[in-house]
């Protein structure tokens, strides 16, 4: 970016739904980051999660909370429980039986909060874990969790164009471990994204290059510390504290990195974005 004019980045206020990790544990392993033989602390997880929530509030965003449920240790990863675009909600259906019951708690939360346009999916769909809204199209990951048929279902239910992307590395089992949107735009060409190319099949890499020629390309080191699990409001980019290299490169492009320690939640395979379901209206 040297010598180039960096455009001013404009934050927009967001509304997030989060779930405190009061019952956090790693009792089972459904992704390569989880090791039930290693100790985890729900207290540390709650402290880190609280810092994340308060960071969003400090940045001027609204955070709603859903009550956690005993026996659902992964419920903290709220992003896997719904996709909301223009007030229309597509619920989730989990691949792992250990997480199945989470979907109903979130369905009820949406109904109790006035979201009448709500559809529960027939196909396996781990929501914003595999869906990323660019402002015009929904980028949709598959390969490990979300069924490819869920992409067509999301297009039909949400009424937005869906672009399928194939994930190929089991460590990056959800799209939100390999890509996030820095700045949305109603025109695809001007939306800004960052992604880790090696997490995608060759064909999907070509799709991403074609759609987002100015994307920030992340390195293996950025991906390994869950740097691609960031949350951007168009200017402020919340990242894991280890992702300083990526943060520095985003700063060169006019973004403001905001670091949080999410190390305890990473033991279950999650980062800032996984804890954060965005409610778009
Ligand atoms: C960033 N990612 C991957 C998420 N969107 N969610 C984290 C889910 C973690 C949970 N143990 C699981 O394996 O489902």
Automatic annotation (TrEMBL):
Q: What is its EC number?
A: 3.5.3.18
Q: Any idea which UniProt keywords this protein has?
A: Hydrolase
Which GO MF terms does the UniProt record name?
A: dimethylargininase activity
Tagged with keyword Hydrolase: yes
Q: NCBIfam families annotated for this entry?
A: DiMArgaseDdahMtb
Protein's UniProt name: Dimethylargininase
